[in-house]
Amino acid sequence: MRDALGSVQTVLVLGGSSDIAVATVRSLAAERARTIVLAGRDPDRLAAPARAARDAGAETVETISFDADDTGSHARVIGEVFERHGDVDLVLVAFGVLGEQERSLEDPDAALGVLRTNFLGAASAVLVAAHRLRAQGHGTLVVLSSVAAERARRSNFIYGSSKSGIDAFAQGLADELAGDGVQVMVVRPGFVHTKMTEGLEPAPLATTPDKVAEAIVDGLRRGAHTVWAPPPLRYVMSVLRHLPRPLFRRLDL
Amino acid sequence: MSPPDSQATAAATRNGTGDARLLTGWGLTAPTRATVHRPRTADDVAAEVAARGGRGVIARGLGRAYGDAAQNAGGLVLDMRGVDAVREIDLDRGQVTVGAGLSLDRLISLMLPLGWFPDVVPGTRYVTVGGAIAADIHGKNHHLHGSIGEHVVSLELLTAAGERITAGPERNADVFAATLGGMGLTGVIAEATLRLSPIETSHVRVDTERAGDLDDVLARMQDGDDAYRYSVAWIDCLARGARLGRSVLMRGDHATVDELPAAERERPLVAPPPARLAAPPWVPDGLLRRSTVSAFNELYFRRAPREERGRLEPLHAFFFPLDAVDGWNRMYGSRGFLQYQFAVPFGQEGALRRALERLSGARVASFLAVLKRFGPHQRGLISFPLPGWTLALDIPVTAPGLPGLLDELDELVADASGRVYLAKDSRLRPDLLGRMYPRLDEWREVRARLDPEGVMRSDLSRRLALAPGAPVAA
Q: B72: buried, middle or exposed (CB in 10 Å: 19+, 13-18, 0-12)?
C-alpha cells in the first residue's frame, strides 16, 4: 500500500534497465519498497539493476522478460506479476527508444519503430496496468514522457511526437481514473545524462538520473500529476511552446 | 447541522457508479476505492460478510481513525452507522446494549439526561461504539480506569467463517482480547454491552496548572494524577531548550450538584450542543504554518492560568474541545495530515524527552500535542496502551523532512519498548510492528482461527502485513 507520505511497498518497472528507472528504484527501496519486479527485453541487462535494488533495501527482487513491442503479450506478462505478488502499488513505465532522426527520415520503418515502442507499446502497457490497479482499488502509474513532448522540434520530432502521444494518452487516462483510487503521474525530464543520450550534445539544464528520481519521489509525495525534471524546465518549455513559429524555427533546436 | 462525518468530507471524489467510493481516514491521506454497503441489522452484516468478494471486507464507523484502518481498496467496506439500535438500557446496573454503529454522541445525548456517562470517552464524541472497541480507545481517565475494553461487559462478533460469538472478559476471553484493539480484523463487532458511570451534573470541576518544562509536568502527573479521575496535559511542541515540554496540565472530576452555582442546580444535566462552527470548505494550504502555530501556542500557554482550582467546565468542552468545529481536519490543507501517537513505558522518560527534542528541533507545526499518563490495564493483545506515557501530535504531511523524522522516532520508540497507535497510524514501517506489539503472534493465532481465509482485511492490514499468510487477492 501507499502510505500517507507517498511511500510505496511493491513496484513494477517496465523498462527496468533504464538509468532513470534504476535511480528511481534505488530511492524507493531506500524507503518502504520491499518487493520490486524489473521487466525488460533483455533479462541479462537487469542483473545489475536488480543488485542495486537489493543493495538499497529491497527484499524480493524479480527480473522478468518483457517486450514492449509485443503488445499481445502485455496482459499476460503484467497480469502474472499481480498474481504472484498481490497488490502492486506503483507501476513505472520507463522503456523507450530515442531512434536516429536522420535515419528515420530516410527509413519510415525506423521511424515507425520509435513510434511503436514509445507510443503504442507504452499505451498498451499503461492500459493493462491501469486495468489491474483499478481492480485493486489503489495504485500509481508513473509514465516517463519527455520535454520533447511539449513542442515538436525539428531535430527530434519523431521521438518528440511519440512522447507527445503517450503524454497526452496518460494525461487523459489520469482524468478517466480520477475517483478510482488510481493516480497517473507524467514525468517530463529534459536532457538526462544516460546510456540513451551518450555521445549527444547536452541541452541547457541537462540533468542526471538521480535528479530525475528525486523529482519522481517528490512528485509521489505531493500526489503530483505532472513532474518536470529539473523543475525550472516547466517555465522554459512554457515559453518555447508559445514562441511564434518564425522565431521558433530560427532557434535551431 | 449534521454531525461531522468524514465519509462526507473524505470521499471528496465519488466516481458515480453504484456504491463504489473513494475513502480516506480522518487525516485525508492515501484515498483508495472500495464498494461501500450500509447494513441496518446484525443479520444484514452477516449476509454481507458471507457475500464478500475476493478482496475481503472491513467495518467502518465514523471514519475517525486517522489512517487507513477503515479502508479496503478494491474490496467491501461496511458502513456500520445504520446498525445503531439501542437494544437495552439497564439503569440499575448502569449498562447499555447497543448496535456497534451507534455513535458516542448519540449514546451521550441519550444517557446524560438520565445521569449516566460512558466510562471511557476519547477526544471526540463522533466515534462509533464498534470503532471505539476495535481501536480499544482510551480517554483522560486511563491512569485509573484503563481503556474502553475494561468497560465492555460483552460484545457480539460476526466472524468471516459465519459464526456469531458472544465474547467478554470471562466468556471467550481469547476472542475478546483479540478483538479489543484488533482493528476490526477478527470479525465485525455487531453489538456491545457497555458500562456507564453515574454522574450528577454535566459539568467537570477542573484544576489547571502550568508546568515550565518536561520534568516539571512529568513530576506533577506522577505525584498528582491519581487524585483526579481525569488528567491530560497540553504540551507546546515548538518550545525548545530550557522550556522544552512546557505544558498546561488540566485535571478534574465530574462536578456534583452542590458544586454548581445555585441557578444551575435545578437542571444539572444538560446534553452537549451540536457543532456550532464549520471549517470553511476550502482552506488555503499552508494556513497552519509554523509561525501561526507558534503564535497560537504562545498565546495558549500565556492565557492558561498559572494555577487555578475548581473551575466548572461543561463536559463537552472538557472532553471534546475540537468537536465544536465541524470538519476541522480540513484545516491542515488539501494534502492532509497525520497524527503521530506513541507510548513508552515508565522508566523510559529519556526516550520521551529525546522524541520531544527531535520533534521540537524539527519545528514541525502542531497545535494538538497531548501528553497523558497510562495506567496498568492491558487486556487487548494488540491494544495500544501500556503502563507509561503517551504523546500525540498532529502534523501536516507537507512538513519538510517528515518521513525521515518519523522513521527515526519509530526506532527510538521501539528501542524503548514502546509502540505507536494503530488507530492513528498511516505510515509505520511494517518490520517494527512485532517489536512494538510483543503479543502480535498470539493475536495472529486467534485471528487465524476466527478467519482462516483472511477475509477481514483493510488497507492498514495490507500495509503493515498485520495478518500475513492470508491468500493473495485474485
A: buried
Q: Where are the domains of chain A?
A: 10-250
Contacts of A221 in chain B (CB under 8 A): 397, 403
Q: What angle do CA A118, A121, A126 make, to 5 degrees?
A: 100
Tell me the chain B residues in contact with residue A179 when contact means C-beta distances shorter than 8 Å.
13-16, 22, 33
| Closest-approach residue (CA) in chain B for A10 | B463
User: Which of B33, B429, B472 lies at the smallest CB-CB distance from A138?
Assistant: B33
- Residue found under cell 520530432: A157
Euclidean distance between CA atoms A99 and A106, whole angstroms: 12
A30 in Cβ contact with B422 (< 8 Å): no
Q: Which CATH class is domain A10-250?
A: alpha beta
**Residue of A2, A4, A83 with shortest CB distance to B336:** A4
Evaluate the CA torsion angle A236, A239, A245, A251 in order and state its sign.
Answer: negative
Provide the b/e sequence for A209-234 (b: ≥16 CB within 10 Å). bbbbbbbbbebbbebbebbbbbeebe
Q: Is the dihedral of CA A223, A228, A234, A238 positive or negative?
A: negative
Tens of pLDDT along chain A (253 residues) come to: 999 999 999 999 999 999 999 999 999 999 999 999 999 999 999 999 999 999 999 999 999 999 999 999 999 999 999 999 999 999 999 999 999 998 999 999 999 999 999 999 999 999 999 999 999 999 999 999 999 999 888 889 999 999 999 999 999 999 999 999 999 999 999 999 998 888 888 888 899 999 999 999 999 999 999 999 999 999 988 888 899 988 888 887 7
Would you place residue B12 in the very low, low, confident or very high pLDDT band (cuts 50, 70, 90)?
A: very low
| Residue A159 annotated to the active site | yes
CA distances from B399 to A145, B337, B370 (A): 29, 9, 19
ipTM for the predicted complex comes to 0.93
How does DSSP assign B196-231, residue by residue?
EEE-S-SEEEEEEEEESSHHHHHHHHHHHGGG-SEE
C-alpha cell recorded at residue A118: 514509445
Helix, strand, or coil here: B77? strand
Residue found under cell 505531493: A222
CB atoms within 10 A of CB A56: 18
Contact B463 A86 (CB under 8 A): no
A41-55, A175-189, B227-241, B295-309: which range is least confident on average? B295-309
Nearest-angstrom CA–CA distance, B195 and B199 = 13
Give B336's contacts (C-beta < 8 A, 6+ positions apart): A4, B24, B27, B28, B29, B329, B396, B397
Instruction: Using an 8 Å CB-CB cutoff, list chain A residues near B474.
Output: 83
